[in-house]
Amino acid sequence: MKKIILAALISSAITAKAQDKFNITGTLSGVGNDKMILLSFTNSEGKSAKDSANVINGKFAISGTTAYGNRAYLELKPIVKDTSKRRTVDYKEFYLEKGNTTVAGTDKIATATISGTKVQAENLAYHAQMDPLQAEYKKIVDRFYKARAAKDSVELKKISEDAKPLMAKMESTLDDFIKNNPDSYMTADLVLGNRMAVVDLEKFEPIYNTLSKRVLASFTGKKITDKYNKAKNIAIGKEVDFTLPDVKGNEFKLSSLKGKYVLVDFWASWCVPCRAENPHLLKAYGELKDKNFEIVGVSLDDKREPWLKAVAQDKLPWTQVSDVKGFKTEVAVRFGISAIPQNFLIDPSGKIIAKDLRGEDVNKKIASYIK
């Protein structure tokens, strides 16, 4: 009986720890009683959830449970939807965690101030640095589109030069925040969203090792760890194999090419950078195919027709495989492939010896590994 009670108490303690109560109180002085606030957030189970409250005499309150600190959104919208006219969405992103969050504004949530928790303070501090840089970057993008439309090559060259120091500043601002805030839930989001599209283990491991245990225990932290571990499956020195159907529907096993150097190229018909790499790969294939070299294209298309059409259009002569499940294909999931183009080169024993070889001189890069 004592064991049962003890187990129940432990279970209750774990549940209580996972459910962090939050309270949001807001004042929107210029809003009447015909509006409501919609909260989109992550609940205590890590699932997307929504809650709402009517704005009464310019005030509203929402309470609930979450876990850790996660990105959330508040939207101000009419209680009764007016279908006669198009409505501009009025919303604001913030970070929600346990404790009290305060919202203060007038007639728009987008311009309101949201404060109260540690992670939201970190969010505000980060955006105070990054938002002015992003505003400058937007101006450069606008200049680019105008110059491209006018076919102004001189201006396009100047835009490219102007963009370099700004982009470098944006990257350093991001890196500094990650480095200086290893115990921030927001850092976890920034790492996952900006430093893990293609995981270079040598560069990423120092970042991962700085993250606190508290952050790595969060929903986002677990995603980081999962993707990091999957990236280790295609680290230099790892032996890899997989089986996928080819263009005729026949099962192709990568290890059937053991004894050759093989470039495994992850791509898709809709991926513009991937298609731009194909002429360079064609050149490499033409020069090296008689030197114990092969290419295997792994398409992450989710429809068969566009995949086969792209193969024909780009005149790709090497083996092509796909189960047309997009990024949900078992190989992509196992290797943590969530962005393309990506590739790796395996030696005759089936071990990875190089990764992400691309560009105009990819033929020379590949040739340098072939003995």
Automatic annotation (TrEMBL):
<dbReference type="InterPro" id="IPR036249">
    <property type="entry name" value="Thioredoxin-like_sf"/>
</dbReference>
<keyword id="KW-0201">Cytochrome c-type biogenesis</keyword>
<dbReference type="InterPro" id="IPR050553">
    <property type="entry name" value="Thioredoxin_ResA/DsbE_sf"/>
</dbReference>
<feature type="signal peptide">
    <location>
        <begin position="1"/>
        <end position="18"/>
    </location>
</feature>
<dbReference type="InterPro" id="IPR000866">
    <property type="entry name" value="AhpC/TSA"/>
</dbReference>
<dbReference type="InterPro" id="IPR025380">
    <property type="entry name" value="DUF4369"/>
</dbReference>
<keyword id="KW-0676">Redox-active center</keyword>
<protein>
    <submittedName>
        <fullName>Redoxin domain-containing protein</fullName>
    </submittedName>
</protein>
<dbReference type="Pfam" id="PF00578">
    <property type="entry name" value="AhpC-TSA"/>
</dbReference>
<dbReference type="InterPro" id="IPR017937">
    <property type="entry name" value="Thioredoxin_CS"/>
</dbReference>
<dbReference type="Pfam" id="PF14289">
    <property type="entry name" value="DUF4369"/>
</dbReference>
<keyword id="KW-0732">Signal</keyword>
<keyword id="KW-1015">Disulfide bond</keyword>
<feature type="domain" description="Thioredoxin">
    <location>
        <begin position="233"/>
        <end position="371"/>
    </location>
</feature>
<dbReference type="InterPro" id="IPR013766">
    <property type="entry name" value="Thioredoxin_domain"/>
</dbReference>
